[in-house]
Amino acid sequence: MYALFALFIASSIIIFPQSVLEASKRGIEMWASVVFPSLLPFFIVAELFIAFGVVHFIGVLFEPVMRPLFNVPGVGGFVWAMGMASGYPSGAKFTVRLRQENQLSKIEAERLVSFTNASNPLFIIGAVSIGFFHNQQLGILLAITHYFSNFLVGICMRFYKRDIRSTRKKEPFSIKKAFQKLYETRMNDNRPLGKILGDAIIHSINTLLLIGGFITLFSVLTRIFQEVNILAVFAKFIAFILQFFQLPTELAPSFLSGLFEITLGAQEIALAENDSILIQAILLSFILAFNGLSVQAQVASLLAETDIRFFPYFCARLLHGLFASILVILLYKPVYVTTSSQTAFPVWSQHIADQANNLYVIFQNTGIIITIISLMLFLVLVINKKTYS
Q: Is-contact 287 252, C-beta < 8 A?
């Protein structure tokens, strides 16, 4: 089956070279202009936090919060915050890293990755809401429902395999103990500062290269499936499901594209002939929560480096999509309609929307330059590492 699928892809590339080239360029441009420059600083900082013992420090301080809420150690607070700020697949990346450091058990890691792999505000507000819909209020609605529903998923996943007791000693809240943990971790890592920084950059860019490959691959796959009308067949099944929930069936192809790749699906939903913002928001909230098969493939690849299973994460994505869709319906009137009827946004929402939009524009204009410079630095570091090893 794998061989036949690979043969099908290879044949499609030969038959539809122009379409495949356009899809490949689109995937690489999106990765180089936005994904790479927006994720690289978070990845490097996270590696430095782990090396310097900051994660252990946070773990002791957040233990009284994360354990009762989500049944995970306090270090999960670091993953949760970084995952929301930087976007997917950061939550999976940092969970895997902590599992490799033996700071999480297998079950704790499966709980943690299920609710820390979220979209970032830059993408929800800057790219989707303002970039595709030219609608700031929609971005605030989607962001609120996305993060709150993700919180609910974390609450639900705390009961996942709760009968299996953790053998890890629970850390009591103590600032003195937190500083002691930070100091011990730093002393146990005898690498010099330059080595730590170089390793952080190499590990981060390696992960981002993997992410870029998946983004490009799924961009090409989605285009091939469109060319050979495979998506049209699946769209009929999606249309039946939408009809069951009394949603317009003409949005089925766009929604299906979003299940494969979020950006493409969001753009097609924005261009679809449908005047109901509520319907579009419901579908958008689901595909943002589902993560798309492209992101899920990235997560599966990262999790494969450890013993963390992918299936609990996949089930959590379906649960997240359900919660997010319901919350959009409940919050549509108080969050979206109310602010739309006002002459001006609330100060906090206006500030968030403006910052996300400005940052997204900056990445679009300078992101590729940042990516090229970073890859050149990466190449120099790798060559030096091989020379002196």
A: no
